[in-house]
Write a sequence for this structure.
């Protein structure tokens, strides 16, 4: 009995000593890097300003990618953070873009930043299976920001094209200007809207100047042969007729051509007198026949 009691006591001491002193086989610690990313995500739930939202998006996106490259978080964990980050951030971005488009002044620096950010958002893909992060509907909304700024840049470039080359081209540019002027977002930008509206008057002026220059070229008849002058005179006469026929219908305004017609007649008469004198001088006996 005594031996049995001693053996039981030794066993009990050994058993409990092992339970107390032996370290656990597996220990689980929270991932502080993942916790940090999730804490940053939570900042977007507090309705921050756009500047803060931009900062949170930039920092968290960079951190999630960096932690994944350094194997501090898994690819799936990084993707999950970026997906949640993007979904939280896009509404802030779209609201900011709409506020910009609703204003009457569009700073170029803001246009550039919105277009750059929209391109980044539309191009985001998961690292695990390379799928677009934005759902179709959200991506369409983001792409509309890009398309608006592209249309703005195109319309602005169009407003610089106030030269006259031919009537068909001018009518095409005016049709484009009318289309841009009717776009809901673009018409909010007062500077662009004013430039588009003035396209007709500026193109009318360019057309008038084109006709005037054609007539003025006739004043250099001393530099042309009679055949060359005749071609130039036909072009000037046709330009006058085209302007009179189409200016009001095209531009909603026109100018009198009477002054240019007087120039035309004056240059034509002087030129023909000169060419006749030249012929007579080259053949002094022609006047006798």
């Amino acid at each position: 009995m005594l031996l049995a009691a001693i053996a039981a006591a030794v066993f009990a001491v050994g058993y409990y000593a092992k339970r107390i002193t032996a370290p656990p086989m597996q220990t689980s610690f929270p991932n502080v890097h993942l916790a940090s990313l999730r804490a940053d995500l939570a900042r977007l739930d507090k309705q921050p300003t756009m500047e803060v939202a931009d900062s949170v998006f930039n920092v968290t996106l960079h951190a999630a990618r960096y932690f994944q490259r350094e194997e501090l978080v898994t690819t799936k964990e990084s993707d999950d953070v970026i997906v949640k980050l993007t979904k939280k951030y896009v509404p802030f971005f779209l609201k900011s873009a709409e506020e910009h488009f609703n204003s009457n002044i569009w700073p170029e620096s803001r246009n550039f930043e919105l277009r750059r950010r929209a391109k980044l958002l539309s191009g985001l893909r998961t690292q695990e299976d390379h799928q677009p992060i934005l759902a179709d509907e959200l991506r369409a909304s983001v792409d509309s920001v890009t398309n608006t700024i592209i249309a703005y840049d195109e319309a602005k470039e169009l407003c610089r094209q106030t030269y006259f080359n031919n009537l068909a081209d001018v009518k095409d540019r005016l049709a484009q200007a009318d289309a841009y002027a009717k776009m809901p977002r673009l018409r909010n930008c007062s500077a662009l809207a004013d430039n588009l509206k003035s396209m007709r008057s500026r193109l009318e002026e360019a057309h008038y100047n084109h006709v005037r220059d054609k007539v003025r070229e006739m004043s250099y008849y001393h530099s042309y042969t009679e055949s060359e002058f005749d071609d130039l005179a036909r072009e000037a006469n046709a330009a006058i007729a085209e302007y009179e026929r189409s200016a009001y219908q095209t531009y909603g305004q026109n100018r009198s051509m009477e002054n240019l017609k007087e120039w035309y007649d004056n240059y034509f008469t002087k030129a023909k007198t000169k060419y006749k004198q030249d012929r007579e001088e080259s053949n002094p006996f022609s006047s006798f026949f």
About this structure: Residues 1-20 have pLDDT under 50 and may be disordered. The CA atoms of residues 25 and 280 lie 122 Å apart. The longest helix spans residues 75-102. The chain has two domains: 35-197, 199-277.
